[in-house]
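Incident log, structure service

09:12 report received: a user says their structure output differs between two submissions of the same chain.
09:20 pulled the input from the user's history:
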Amino acid sequence: MALAWFICTYNRRTPPPTPGRATRYCAMDDHTATIRADGGDWSESEVLGNYALVKVRAAAATLTTIGATAGFYRIPAAASLTTPLSTLTGGQRTALRARLEAMGYDTAEITASLGSNLALRTLGDVLRFAASLRRKPRYDAIADEIVMDGDIRTCKPIDDVDREIT
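09:34 re-ran on a clean worker, output below:
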């Protein structure tokens, strides 16, 4: 079994369990059957921007398949929260920073919390920052969409996700 961290979105469940009431789910759930067939499992923390940080334990081939799925970003060469990001290439660190920006954090927030050089940080530093807040989703019945503009909520702590999947 191998371990990996992913960033993925939440998807709208179609059809919704209750007619006229949209719901969403972590996109990693689309891979649950394959992960469990490997004897693996996964856990997530919902974060800002309709994203999830997900730790997965599965066969290496399954992790590769998940990483190749549209909308999924596998954090390269980093399974442990203590992994120094200096082990990633400059391009990989740039891609990770871009994911933080896609979540909704601006450059100033990222720099204030993590500094300007991610090579000086660990995977845990980055994931804990990413899981520092999220917004409560709401359903807009008129537009028939789920909107991520609600109150600020806490995220499931990354250390809890890490402990759940070993």
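09:41 both user submissions now match this output. Likely a transient worker issue. Closing.
09:42 reviewer note: Residues 2-164 form one domain. The longest helix spans residues 90-103.
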